[in-house]
Design goal:
The chain has two helices and nine strands, in the order αβββββαββββ. It is mainly beta and about 120 residues long.
Length: about 120
């Protein structure tokens, strides 16, 4: 059985990392997800994630995560965009109030934090 060490793919950075490589503020008004692309030649990067109910709502800091892009892609959590040389990363706020890194509802997911 092939097991994946999630800690090596998506590691929580202690405390507030200040400014990450990606500084995302997702909101529930945008279909409860945040998605974007990053360059393929980045081996790893730090995602600083915050969330809010709408664009006008105050944001809540969720956490900072060091992402191993190659490992996440190999395990099916992110994908390479065809012909673009970039990775697609997607975060979704699900009905259980947790935020997950995942491609779609049919793919594996990694829990990042909670937003209520």
């Amino acid at each position: 059985m092939n097991t994946v060490n999630l800690e090596e793919l998506c590691k929580l950075v202690e405390g507030d990392c200040g400014k990450g490589d990606l500084n995302w503020v997702g909101n529930d008004a945008s279909q409860r997800n945040q998605s974007g692309v990053v360059r393929e030649n980045a081996i790893s990067l730090v995602l600083r994630l915050s969330w809010r109910r709408s664009k006008a709502s105050p944001k809540s800091f969720i956490g900072c995560y060091r992402l191993n892009l190659g490992g996440l892609e190999a395990a099916g959590y992110i994908r390479k965009e065809a012909g673009s040389g970039k990775y697609r990363i997607r975060i979704e706020h699900e009905s259980d109030n947790d935020l997950y890194l995942k491609l779609s509802s049919k793919r594996p997911r990694i829990r990042l934090g909670r937003f209520v």
